[in-house]
Amino acid sequence: MVGCDDEMGGNNAAGRLSSADCGRIDCPLNIVLIGMPGAGKSSIGVLLAKRLGYDFVDTDLLIQVEAHCRLQQIIVHHGLDAFKDLEERVVCKLAPQRAVIATGGSVVYSATAMTRLQQIGRLVFLDLPLPMLQQRVRNMDSRGLVIDPGETFAELYARRLLLYRRYAELTIPCGALAPEEIAATIEGALCRV
To answer: pTM for this structure?
Structure first.
């Protein structure tokens, strides 16, 4: 198996490639993406992780693995509070090294989870205008959205926007940018180029 020694310098004991050996060393230890559902956290997170040679972690997927079911099933069968508790527990157990972390949009409801994310990485808010989000998020009933009964997507956006802005160390206005441009912008802002 080809290791980093061969071309990029460094190799781990098992001879496997790892982000610790091959990833950029001039970037924050972890980069945490926050924002509304539909903002592109997972898609942009994968692109950014590839650019940096980092691992990629999606907290929604970790929640599904922990619960052994999809996000929407957790909400339907156990309720919003149980979902938020599970999300907090999953986030508080995170200990990645050199990773891009895509969070669920509701993570900002937990001060405990947000404190943990601040401890392990730099928080980047992917800010997309409401009309663009509404175009992207059409499957509200099946998406696993933490939204109060009777609450509109616009109301959810207004409530969360304040929290995203409070916690973000960097805000990226994404409305006019393609995903690759957003990843490049984050890299340029957080890493020495």
So the answer is: 0.86
